[in-house]
Amino acid sequence: xxxxxxxxxxxxxxxxxxxxxxxxxxxxxxxxxxxxxxxxxxxxxxxxxxxxxxxxxxxxxxxxxxxxxxxxxxxxxxxxxxxxxxxxxxxxxxxxxxxxxxxxxxxxxxxxxxxxxxxxxxxxxxxxxxxxxxxxxxxxxxxxxxxxxxxxxxxxxxxxxxxxxxxxxxxxxxxxxxxxxxxxxxxxxxxxxxxxxxxxxxxxxxxxxxxxxxxxxxxxxxxxxxxxxxxxxxxxxxxx
Length: 240
Fold this sequence. Notes:
The chain contains eight helices and six strands. By secondary structure, it is an alpha+beta fold.
């Protein structure tokens, strides 16, 4: 940290400039900088891609409750409460998809709050191979961590942080995998198998419509162009 031209305090990692008019003392600027960094990190931990959060909203809301509990925690019993909140988030995740079409028939369904039971079923239905093994391991170990923290009388903030990170990762992983299941596999170019395919729309004013085709940015392949009138385009939307 140093002074630049007697007008700004410069704090690195990352570099930030703080006006000496607002922060006359260097220590004030440093304290503010550290606090701002902590707030930004905590805010980021409570975020998930919207397209993934759409599939785990109840679980993610309960996880944010755990983050809030962590913000206010100072004693071992407070950190234990973080474990309880994380456990509740996982149970909510289990309850959210028991009737999902992709689950199908379950010969002997676990109890509603049995996260490990349902989590393993979800892993079976959503994944295969190495990914299935990984997801099942996450289900088992993350649940064990939340229960451990809940009953750990000597819990510290570091322990609670570990459990928060593990819970966040597991919920986010399920959100991503379920989204992939619902959205389907990404389209690939039939010529070069690249994923860099996009839809190309070319409006035709004189014909009162547009031509639509799929184009590959990797090899230049283009599908057959299909023409749609504007009346057809908007009538399809109204039917929905």
